[in-house]
Amino acid sequence: MNVVILVFSLVGLLLSGYGFPKLIRHWLGGRKTSFFSLLLWIPYFMILTYIVAAWFPIIDPADKPNPVTGLIAIAVLALYPFYLAILHLFGTTPITEGMEEDQVT
Q: Which residues of the chain form beta strands (DSSP E)?
């Protein structure tokens, strides 16, 4: 089961890394102001954390995750804003179709 979860996570990461810049170009038109949408992950994170903690409390001590799981979660949360910034950067860079070299005369 761990291998299946790892494969689905990696496939999702690769697909989102390819698809999100295309969506950013399509929906936001590649404008630099689309970087303000990077700030939206903060309230979503806070709301989701509250909902998960309130709806799924850890009551049984056997439900607690391993100590290393917390370190992995901290690393993922620290790298997530940079991942979003890179996706937005690729989504806002213009694509020049049919690039040809200019002839210098």
A: none
Task: Collect all residues with Cβ–Cβ distance below 8 Å to 52 and sequence separation of at least 6.
Answer: none
Q: d(Cα 5, Cα 11) in Å, to the nearest integer?
A: 10
Q: Are 87 and 30 within 8 A, CB to CB?
A: no
Residues 13-40: tens digit of each pLDDT: 888 888 888 877 777 776 667 677 777 8
Angle (CA) 73 79 82, round 5°: 155
Looking only at Cα atoms, what is the longest distance across the chain?
77
DSSP state of 59: -
Look up the pTM and report it: 0.59
Residue 93 contacts residue 30 (beta carbons within 8 Å)? yes
